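INSTRUCTION: Work out how this chain folds

Token vocabulary: learned, describes local backbone geometry

RECORD BEGINS BELOW THIS LINE
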Amino acid sequence: MKNTQSFKPKVNEIQEFLEVASDFESPYELIREALSNSYDAQAIEMTISISLLEDGRTKITLTDDGHGMGVRDLESFFDLGNSRKSTGIGYKGHGTKIYYKSDHVRVTTVHEGNEYTAAMDNPWEKLNDGILPDYTVKRTNSEEEEGTKIEIIGFRAGRGFDPQKLTYNRLSNYINWKTIGGSLAHQFDPESSEMDITIELSDEIDSSEARITQSNKFRFPEEKLKPDSETPDEVESLCKHYQPQTITRTVDGRTVEIQIAGFVAGRQAREQLPTHGRHSTQFGVWLAKDHIKVEQINETISSDNQYLHFFFVANCPQLELTANRERVRNKADPIYDEVVSEVEWHMTKVAQSEWYRQYEELRRHVARKQAAASQSASLEERKQQLTLQGNPVPTNTAELLVQYTNHSDDNAANIVSITQDSDVNVILQEDDELVGASATPLLHSFFVDEKTLEGVDRFICWSLGDLDYLRELERTDYVGREFEIQFKKNNVVCIVDGTQIPVTVVQDLTAETHPN
């Protein structure tokens, strides 16, 4: 026997499938993968249907009119690392493995006169039991139009799948911001494919609509270069679209192409776009691959500019992504450094452009005028406002807290700390505990300003403010979190993702201590 032997490394196929599928945590990722595959199949129409079965399981049906799949394509669909794509987001063959996190997968596809039906039973259960699931394929002749229908029953991801969180509003916004359904490819190629995306949810999930349809092309807010008047609202409605640019560089002998497009806009202009979360997580500068936004690189904007006013996407096919496609993987590659450097130079030119400089000066000018107008209010006017109907009406946090201490019992009014530079601007001593509170004259303004809820154990407000706005949050959500406001026995409670945050309405306290 020879002293030296040759061995080939082995791969645990089951563990590989489990690990790749487990990398995909969010149920939204299934939608993202389906949209990418339909777009690659040159579909003109794609439909996402989600319903609940009688046993409580979820059924997700994905239908498109693309060119369908043959036997080799079906193998790529079910195999791991056996994609037929040579480039693009799905070239590694990882994405469709998210479908394995279910009880049943069924694919019906028509391609070149043949209909193929492929089925896989209990893939997730089998993988977790150490069994590699198999699938069957049946072929019949067909005169139907080409296309594909994928049915997933009993889908689950992460800590569990709650289909009732997939409302029309959330799905539509996610598709627009985080998938090929929000592509900027048309900015560079007017002939790029357009795909209509329809969402259908059963009434048990969301009965607010029968269905909604949207294009896969991301649309900028309406361009408005000059204000009609020097008011804050007018300035915040300004928007400028910057000319798309394609930059080609050579890095270590490799060709790198960077496509950059975007706009600068005030808050009111940005709000023309329905967003998936708060503005700080949506706007700024994005890296993208295949025109799907991946991660922000807001550091490419100089610190003296507010990145919220910018929305730019830098698309680069040479970027490599992590398995779940949430991050850029090749950051140690010189290509990544080159891309970031070019984006930084591009954003410097935007910030130095004549329009942007005038926009920033106009914003500062209007802010100064507004501050001067606020400070010029006469003492008599303030006194009159503060004594309206015999009850002082606070116009700022300090005045609100004066009223709070005047009309609360000793325990509730024990303020330990006040700060002006935090969303949690008050610390209260309640019994033996320190409690974080957010004090704001009008409760709805906290949510309008998209402040963080981290550390907020209580709200203190003069009044609730715009109840219609708060009710709209209940219908949609607050920065991706479920929101509800309840009135219980003279008490007001905000419920965010199931966590109750009590609300102290100081105006009600004054009515109790000074009844008519």
Summary: The first helix runs from residue 13 to 22.
